[in-house]
Amino acid sequence: MPFIDHVSDSDLQRLALQRVVPALLSRGFCYVDGLLGEVAGGAVLEQVRDMHRSGALQDGRLASSAPGVHRRNVRGDKIAWVSGAERGCEAVNFLLNLIDKLVSMCAGRLGTGTGTGAGAGTSIRERSKAMVACYPGNGTGYVKHVDNHNYDGRRITCIYYLNKDWNAKEHGGVLRIFPEGKSYVVDIQPLFDRLLLFWSDRRNPHEVQPSYATRYAITVWYFDSEERAEAKRRFRDLAASTSQQQQQPPQDSGSS
Ligand SMILES: Cc1cc(NC(=O)CCC(=O)O)nc(C)c1Br
Ligand SMILES: [Fe+3]
């Protein structure tokens, strides 16, 4: 079904230049509410709910329960990786295309301000598949971490939230960002039709606080081409060197 084109290219251009780029450069994160609008946003939510109902969201990480509580492992978030081309993902694909357009309109203007010191600036031309995630609402969250803590190439994390009538006081599930070197934290509610963008590296450690209602989100990571290529080279060298070691006979320890 043809989605209502809620956001025109000129809207996106304005959003990129007047909101997203300045915020990323000055604060390192930015969120936009009402990205797709009720109809298209609702279509994405329905498709994610269908994935959840059909069991497509799996292999969540084991989340240990609170210390002291009888130590059973409870399931954390459930995820599925989608390209958007899958049947039943048409609305997700529409979302991904829109985010791609928005990020490409920003990419040329994120210059050397990214503070990575790597090369002349950020050339973002590729991204990961989309990670559809569901926190089941059993009190699990996601421990504090950095997405790209070791130059794996990821430059911008984009998270699209899908949760209607979310109330953090009752449902928890706040994404808390701890901006590097700042004395304050930033609490983001995972609200329906909200798009959050932030630098994936050490500038933005973050955690998901325990969620007490079903919490859906779709995440894509955009790569800096140079850093990604370098990370792939490093990974190939590592793989090559470890496989060589396996081929060589184990060096005797030299002990008598
Ligand atoms: C699998 C995986 C999930 C996440 N998710 C979040 O940080 C949650 C953000 C939110 O839902 O608000 N991050 C990493 C680095 C990996 Br890997
Ligand atoms: Fe993360």
TrEMBL record:
Main location: nucleus
Molecular-function annotations in GO: ferrous iron binding; hypoxia-inducible factor-proline dioxygenase activity; L-ascorbic acid binding
Domain of life of the source: Eukaryota
Keyword match Metal-binding: yes
Cofactor requirement: L-ascorbate
Region: Disordered, residue numbers: 234-256
Protein name: hypoxia-inducible factor-proline dioxygenase
Organism name: Salarias fasciatus
